[in-house]
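Sample intake sheet
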Amino acid sequence: MSGRITDYWTTIFGPYPFKSTGGIVDDFASGYALENQTKPIYGGFEPDEGIISHELAHQWFGDSVSISRWKDLWLNEGFATYAEWLWAEHRGQATAQQTFDRHYANTTDPMWNYPPGVAQKSDLFNNSVYIRGAMALHALRTTVGDDAFFRIIRQWASDHRHGNATTGQFTALAERVSGQRLGELFGQWLFDKGRPAPLTRI
């Protein structure tokens, strides 16, 4: 499964940034997975496709393109979570839009009061960094269209391969590739408290 998912990610994210891939299922029941370069570790459980797709997406977003500062953690976790949605879409299980809609419908979720673009040092791995971070990417995709969105993602992985990057660099790239002003979009989804307005679909 790891090889099949990695092969698919190369068609979405660009060339695999390392020389090998795989995974390790440890007998220590940590209850979580960790995205080590080339071989994620699954702590005492057999991972499903969603978890594998998440951890392998980290090879591009987190292990190759690494953040320069912790407050930009959504660039790792939001991207890997959105990869889960893309894998489910690829497998015909649920579209990314359907997954987005399910989370957006939960009006009382605490993530609406936690902007993912400024992760808090006392609560770095807040659910907002994962889910609302992924929702920010889907909002971008909906706004600029699939062609521009996937060009942005591939360019991001290529430009910062084996390097460090920030949210500001990502938003600048998105505007440059799409030719659109996206400050309001990113402001609502990454930096403002509160549930953003519904998406306008193109």
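Comment: Residues 127-144 form the longest helix (18 residues). The domain at 2-191 is CATH 1.10.390.10 (Neutral Protease; domain 2).
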